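We modelled the chain as a single entity of 133 amino acids. Its sequence is:
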Amino acid sequence: MPLYDKGREGFLDGSISWTNDNIKAVLVDTGAYTVNAATHANLSDIPMPARIATSGNLTGKTATAGVADAADVTLTGVSGASAEMVVLYKDTGTASTSRLIWYTTSATGLPVTPNSGDINLAWGNTANRIFKL
């Protein structure tokens, strides 16, 4: 799965700690956002109308052998436009400094059309789990 270049940089320069930082997932409408992994750095690069729902902090995070994993996530009461992408980011509390890490458009259940119900994000159970550095 693709990593944003600034996400890779963050892991290498120590500004992102997968196991210690607040990491969140956001459902994204690709009709309102086109990913640019080379130049997009922060959550503010994803326009507000494209952000359909945001999770709480990921829990149960592990980083064994360079493989990032976490407990599955449930987004509750989601409404709005359809979502075709999931993005992970380090949440600092400010969109302009919340570093983008990873994205996918191929997760099970995507695209999804919210109906005010819950949406479950289940990370892969493959060898690379969410992603591998």
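As a brief sanity check on the tokenised model: The chain has a mean pLDDT of 95. The chain has one domain: 5-115.
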